[in-house]
Amino acid sequence: MNTLYSDKRPVSLTSAALHVMNALIFLLAGLSPATIYANQSIALTSAANTATTTAIAAEGYIYGFPIVLMDETRKGMTGPLRSCTFGTDINTFKHVLDLPDPEFKAVVRPNVDTLYSSAMLDLSEGPLVMTLPDVPDHYVLMAFMDAWSNNFAGIDTTGENTLAGEYLITGPDWRGRIPRGMTQIAAPTNLVWIIGRTELLSPDDIYTVNQIQASYELNPYDPRVRASYGNQADCLEDSEKQPPIDIVLSMSGETFFSRLSELMIENPPPRDQRTMEVLLASVNTGRFADGDVEDLSRIQKRQLDAGIRLAQGSLDTAKQFLGLSGWGPNPRLVPLGEYGKRYFIRAMVAQIGFGANKNEYAVYQNAERDSLRRNMNGQYDYTLTFKADDMPDVGAFWSITAYGDDGFLKYNEHAATLGIERYALSTNTPLERDENGDITLYISSQPPQGVPLNNWLPVPNEDFQLTLRFYDPGEEILSGTWKVPDVVRTN
Questions:
Q1: What 3-state DSSP class applies to 92?
Q2: Domains, the chain, ordered by start
Q3: Helices (H), 40-187
Q4: CB-CB contact of 491 with 477 (8 Å)
Q5: pLDDT digits over 325-369, tens only?
Q6: Which of 48, 159, 206, 490 has the smallest number of CB atoms closer than 10 Å to its CB?
């Protein structure tokens, strides 16, 4: 869910300049805020015009944003007032059984190429056994996210893989022997989010995909641990719920760092991030703190708020830069799903597309500007052409989906009049080639004339964005040597 932070209070010129500087450093070098702020502590303190609490809060906010968002997402999925779309008990799969439409608001940029299967896991009471069926004719990806949003493991149907098997999902404290015939998936944290995607070959394929989804199972490894099936809980439609990211973005400094402290104790960071733990302990956050966040002085709590505003300003500025260069991000420069100490990139991804998987499983490319770097708008017509000798190199399939400027699907009345309910084109669409073997996609709010309607991607009559997804991408895509063609405005 992608909702930008908004703070109406004026920002000083020094602070604004720092936002731009940090954003440019991120875009050009992919550095973490630990590196950025360590090299610019004087500038940061000057911009904040306070003691070091503000600087620590700024760095801590960027460091901790993903795990706080992960926990809020967990609450939204498994809590007493859970999402009707993704809500279910802990350690249980919830399957989305139909394609999303413009009313779907559960996640930003929903794809219409696959059906989701989601599960929030708590491994603190012991391992879980995931049983998957043999799926020889559909692409399936089970991506595993730890509490910090790292995609630490994945199972897919690429190559000779057919998915079938039993997988023992273990937490960081579990010690034991792996039963014969089981494959271990060792999680670095007890909080894990499984995001499953099962390929939809066509709209008529939904029943088959639902049958595949029904075969995905999760059960406790220890028979003495009770499964959480059948718990009664109310659910709310997504339109009635505040998105998790909005909740996190609206937190005060005291609330945010109190939550972060609890989560860092429950899901300790890797050993090589001990420096961040020690730093945050100085504001009573984490397992090395001498007190609680609520014990800080009133002035320090205000400085926590100031640090959050400073950090979010840098993130917002970086997000504004992202769309300036056409398609992005560059998969070679932005290692989605495996961030290490790239805390700034990790926080950015959490706010733009939370739950992103490693590039090796799928590469996503987003665009909101055409070949001349003008914002794309449905009052104009556009084309995107894949040359016959330069098609996307994928082992599974590719797709392109249109969204409104808010990242959600949009209704197109002209398409509806023609009986077309389409938000994407893909390898599985019967696209027509021209005499040279090229595939040209026609992107417009009204049906194009004199061209194959199978190649038409309807968009709203307003600003819109495009997302290209490459499942099981080849080396040319992963290395960034293959470039997505520009979107060309034709009128």
A1: coil
A2: 13-75+245-343 (no CATH), 90-229 (2.60.40.1610), 361-489 (2.60.120.1600)
A3: 41-48, 52-78
A4: no
A5: 789 888 887 778 999 999 999 999 999 888 989 999 999 999 999
A6: 159
